[in-house]
Amino acid sequence: MKRSGSDRNTLNERYRSLQLLDDDDEWMEEPQCFSTCDTETYGSSMDMETTFIPLARTLLERERMTSFLQSSWVFLLLLGVLASVTAWSIDAGVQILSRLHWSLTALGEGWLSGYLLYILFRVFILLMGVGCTVILCPEAVGSGIPEMRSILGGFPFPNYLTSRALIAKCFGLILALGSGLTIGKEGPFVHLSSIIAQQLLNLPLFEQIRQSNDLTHHMLAAACAVGVTATFGAPVGGVLFSIEVTTSYYVTSNYWRAFFSSVVGVVVFRGLNSLLAGSYVLLFTTEFDALPYETFEIALFLLLAVICGVLAGLLVRSYRMILDLKVRFMAQFLLPLCGSFPGLSPFIYAALVALLFSLVEYPVGRFMQLTQHQTINDMFSTKTLTAHEVSNTTHLSIDFGSSWTSPSLIMNLFTYVVVRFWSAIISITVFVPSGIVTPVFAIGAVVGRLFGEMIVILSKGELSIGGYAVVGAASFTAGATGTISIAVIVFELTGQLSYMIPVLLCVIVGRAVTRSFSLDMYETMARQKNLPQWPDLTKQISYSLSAGDLMRDVPPFYLVRHQTLASIKHLLDVTSRSKKGKSVGVFPVIDDVRTMIMLGVATREELESLVVLWEFSLRSGKASHYTCVPMAGITADQAIVLSNPAMETLEVVDLVQLEVLSLEDDYIHVPRDTFASHVILLISVHKCPQLFVTQRGKLQGVIHAADLLAHSRRDML
């Protein structure tokens, strides 16, 4: 829209002082003024300068300080600190509950009484976690990563980033992990960091950031990276992992924000651990040699990656099956059982899950009672599990070496995989905050260890079995989550690059195998919750389809360049409510029905303003049925001639001539042969609500954002 003449005159007056700087005559008059001034006047001006210059400097310094405090640096610093303190507090709370669990179990005088106390504690703590989550904020249930992916894609989620969700997520996660549920923390931590970022944005100090949609988006993206970093203590891998799981398209200029806040978070987290423990150690300590594997073992690693990829795909498919069974079970049994109290169904379901796995895990063996962190440390060990010394154990009891080998090491490892496979799937269906990375990482580590132990038995050779556990953990997690960055996280967690080549190869293979017959876990969760998410352009078909393949036919509601007022009113009336309860907001304008040449678009607001203006003019007597009524942005020679509504049945003589401006940024058009990948980028990145499809200027159809979402759900993009 071009500026009118009056706007340009106002603009010229406003910047007249800047134009004078280029005028030599004006500059020559300044010294002449000083030559005519007397000494008294000059002295008084010097006194004023002496008084006001320090004041001006003080005000300038205050302004700079205020600007700095309101900057992104301070925001990201606070975000990293607060997110890390929150994550550390949650870990501390879980550790306290775990110790309380073992202390309570030890109170039993015999095996049976200890078994009973073990079960009661798990059921009671999990019920408390369900209560905190469901009662305080139901939006806190689940992972949080699929929802944040939708939010960063531009889709609003009310009540998802509120303070109530923060409280529910924190206490629900502490109680769920403390109950022994087989869940992870990466999803809830991402959600928690995003809530903290949103609450910081609500402060008056960061109003300037909040007013910018782009900056708000960047801060939430950085918060997701901080959440992943707080989970693993891996800033580089955390940033890359967050990019893979929460965004379809990432603005690379936002890298520095994510890395800065993540590094701050890691420093704070490690500092808190050092204050309590006296020193900081890596999450998983390994002692591999510089080159701990032979060349022929690459083939074994790839075979392990294929096995892990298949198991990861089966895990995702089993999760979908369990979800369907859960829905039918609750509808057919739990809801009728609850009767007039349907709110009790989440509690009954959680109690049944806790009871089931408590009954199974306790009698199976002591190895099933290890935490996931302890299990992974055991699997990564370069020693055999029978050679654990008391000084090297990280377990709550004195020695767990015999736990893995009694009655059989292979049998125990296999049992752990089977039980944890199903417990991880079922646990994330409970109504509490939950993640998936840590459970699948532990399962993958045990699968790799089992594979390595069997290779040693068959070959009767000496291999670094812990390396197979590292490769198995990475490839299994890559398949389940659909990420490659898990390899970087493994390097940071172990602090070694000895298995860099096998890990990178197997992560790619594991992900490819899983992707060949299954979606990843986060995509499955998003579809189960029917969350709107943009296609990520990973399918080859996105580069072979065109806009013509995605478009709908010519929209039924469009305007011809020459239109009667009565027909406009009728058009607005019939499009006020569609079948989905939403009104049509944009109307394409064509030159003629025969040519269908697209001239531009007219919004509902513009048309409604036109009708109101005309009717007001008629009632006030300021216009006749043939008065030219100028619209904003249209000059007098482009005036709009309004017709008498009573003449609509007559031959069209006096028409509403719509001179629409050039196509607006939000309502652009694309040629029919435009690739689908470009259409997806325009709608998802530039947030275009719809695209009109043309062929040599002729209107052919329209592509709505909802069309892309529907195609994505049907795996067509």
From TrEMBL:
GO terms for cellular component: membrane. InterPro entries: CBS_dom_sf, Cl-channel_core, Cl_channel_volt-gated, ClC. One of its GO terms (molecular function) is voltage-gated chloride channel activity. Keywords: Chloride, Ion transport, Membrane, Repeat, Transmembrane, Transmembrane helix, Transport. It is found in: Membrane. It is a multi-pass membrane protein. It holds the Pfam family Voltage_CLC. The chain crosses the membrane at residues 73-97, 117-145, 166-184, 220-243, 255-278, 298-316, 337-360, 421-447, 468-491, 497-514. It comes from the Eukaryota. This is Chloride channel protein. It comes from Peronospora destructor.
